[in-house]
Amino acid sequence: MAGRTAWHGMIVGLSESLKIPKESELKDYQKILEQNPYFLEIFNNAIDTLCRTLGTDGNLNVVIVKQGIKKARELIN
């Protein structure tokens, strides 16, 4: 649950920063971020860590949790 919550928080922050609707699909964010491969990589890492690993698989490894949150903050900042 924490991973999904962090993921949704990142999407809210990213939507505000990029001025796109929060209801946009994943591919919409990726298409915008394709313009900067660095940000696209961070975004894809955040998907993998926050949404898939923590959210779907329920991995509770503290190192992975911290890394996912770090990537989300890095992208939003």
Structure, described:
This protein is mostly helical. It has one domain. Helices cover 78% and strands 0% of the residues. The protein contains four helices and no strands. The protein has helices spanning 2-18, 26-33, 37-56, 62-76. Helix 3 runs antiparallel to helix 4 (62-76). The model has no long low-confidence stretch (mean pLDDT 82).
Shape: globular
**Sheet of most strands:** none
Low-confidence stretches: none
Distance between the termini: 23 Å
State mean pLDDT (0 to 100 scale). 82
- The tally of domains stands at 1
State the order of secondary-structure elements, H for helix, E for strand: HHHH
Helical stretch tally = 4
